[in-house]
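pls design
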């Protein structure tokens, strides 16, 4: 992605840490945690790889179509899984955003080269609005509702899963802004 290298590296670390935690959640004893964790781990690691500053590493030309293919498959999986729950619609939006960013980078490795500086393209703007709303809603959901007290494993803590989703939502907004 484009932008300052320091913010790129922060995104890499944030997304890789979220991906690693999601991998840990895949070993959870709670089935609902395991179901969502695989897609979220893929998203975290994919975002980390995509956020590596362009000044440090420029992916080969075949990498962007490969990203689009992987996240296109993830989008189809999320669409199929959305029959069972609304959270998979968010996975669908995330996967489609990754396909879109990969397509933009494949066409113009310098970013939005095709819009002539006339502002933010419509798709980018729509994705920014969606993910900004998601970040705000996720932030509100982090506010404790009381109760609790029981001891659970790291992979079973819903507040950590919500914090990871919030982090990846913030990272997605940042990546869309620097596209």
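designed seq:
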């Amino acid at each position: 992605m484009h932008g300052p290298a320091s913010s790129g590296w922060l995104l890499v670390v944030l997304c890789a840490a979220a991906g690693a935690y999601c991998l840990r959640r895949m070993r959870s004893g709670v089935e609902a945690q395991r179901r969502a964790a695989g897609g979220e781990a893929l998203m975290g690691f994919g975002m980390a790889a995509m956020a590596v500053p362009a000044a440090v590493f420029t992916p080969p030309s075949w990498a962007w179509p490969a990203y689009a293919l992987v996240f296109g498959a993830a989008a189809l999986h999320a669409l199929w899984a959305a029959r069972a729950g609304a959270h998979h619609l968010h996975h669908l939006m995330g996967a489609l955003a990754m396909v879109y960013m990969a397509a933009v980078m494949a066409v113009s490795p310098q970013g939005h080269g095709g819009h002539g500086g006339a502002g933010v393209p419509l798709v980018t703007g729509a994705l920014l609005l969606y993910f900004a709303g998601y970040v705000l809603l996720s932030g509100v959901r982090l506010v404790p509702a009381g109760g609790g007290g029981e001891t659970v494993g790291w992979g079973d803590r819903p507040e950590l899963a919500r914090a990871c989703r919030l982090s990846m939502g913030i990272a997605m907004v940042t990546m869309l802004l620097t596209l």
